[in-house]
Amino acid sequence: MKSNSLFLLLVFPFLFSCENSTEQQEEIPLESMRNEVSATKVTVAKAEQRSFDYLINASGKVEAGQEVMVVIERQGYLKELSVQEGQYVEAGAVIARLDNTDNVFRKEKALVQLKNAQASYNSEKLGFGSILEGEDQEQVLQLDEQLKASSGLLSAEIELKEAELELAKATIKAPVSGKVADLQVKPGSLVNAGDELCEVLNTHTLLLNVKVLESDIPFISLGQTAEVYPVSAGTGTLSGKVGSINPKVDENGLVEVGIKLTGAQKLLPGMNARAVIRAPQSDNVVVPKQALVYRSGRPVVFTVNGKEAKWNYVEVGKDNGREIEILDGIKDGETVITSNNLQLGHQAQIQIAKENE
């Protein structure tokens, strides 16, 4: 009996102290527990309702505004080549000459035939003086044509024109103003009709032809601005405008878009470049892309509510790589959290970092 009483006296104070400890733990307010957790340092930005630029990225090659292949039109030996690659030529300037000895001879022969035919024509006209001097002009014209044909004058005139045309083909001129590229032959070479001599590139106007996804074509129109980033170093960023849209989709689901470049003196045809075409959209709330996170597959944006983070489910629109449209869930002017938001929770304590932190 004494031992049992002693045991109860020892145990009872212990149970009483445990009960008091439990009560004290239960009485700790939730607010004090939050204060014990250090606030998450975050950066913020303002949600803005404004026009959103949907950015379409595409790559391609730079081309000259005009690229004309100079083709040799007759057979012969290349007697003279007046240009070299990279040289600028004006339209109509002589760039090469073929040996034209045979053409000069043919022209002289055609001139002799023309003189003989002219003499025959004049002789035959003498027998029809009364008709040719008559008032019936239709009859006069008809008789004159017959005399030209019978005397060989018409044939001689055609022969002379053909000889002059062949002689002109021996002198090769620049079809457009531009720089000479890809010279194919050397002086003294025997060339044939249809051989390519060189290419003349009009580099005053340069184009960037890019391939764009067919799904993005509805957002592109003539005159839209574009930023061009050449691959080559030292050329910088260029500007341009959409100048053409091919109305055909290729087998890969791509559409060719031509961009006219400005201030592209350092570029050369054939260079690779990337274009970013700006397609303005309707006014919506826009936030930095970093403000958007996904929880259980749903898009979420955290906003600032005093010293706490507020969880907001949102409906997103287009994404241009830097900003994203918010169609619903965020209002214009709200402050959104743009960093340390991947593991952030609703009503989590936050501390807004200063700009230099």
Helix content: 25-40%
- Strand-pairing-aware structural class: alpha+beta
Q: Trace the largest sheet across and list its strands.
A: 3-10-13-12-11-14
Question: Mind telling me the C-alpha Rg?
Answer: 43 Å
SSE order, as H and E? Answer: HHEEEEEEHHHHEEEEEEEEEEEEEEE
Low-pLDDT runs of 5+ residues are 1-28
What structural keywords apply?
single chain; 357 residues; alpha+beta; conserved putative lor/sdh protein from methanococcus maripaludis s2 fold; Elongation Factor Tu (Ef-tu), domain 3; 6-stranded antiparallel β-barrel; 4-stranded antiparallel beta sheet; 6 helices; 21 strands; 41% strand; elongated
Structure description:
- With 357 residues, the chain is an alpha+beta fold.
- Among the domains are: 36-52 and 283-352, conserved putative lor/sdh protein from methanococcus maripaludis s2 fold (Beta Barrel); 56-65 and 202-281, Efflux pump adaptor protein, beta barrel domain (Elongation Factor Tu (Ef-tu), domain 3, Beta Barrel), CATH 2.40.30.170; 100-169.
- The chain has helices at residues 2-26, 30-36, 101-125, 129-132, 137-151, 153-169, and strands at residues 40-42, 44-46, 48-71, 76-81, 88-89, 94-98, 171-173, 178-181, 190-191, 196-213, 225-230, 238-245, 254-262, 272-288, 292-295, 298-305, 308-313, 315-319, 323-328, 335-337, 350-352.
- Helix 3 (101-125) crosses helix 5 and helix 3 (101-125) packs antiparallel against helix 6.
- The protein is elongated and about 125 Å long.
- The two termini are 73 Å apart.
- The model is unreliable at 1-28 (pLDDT under 50).
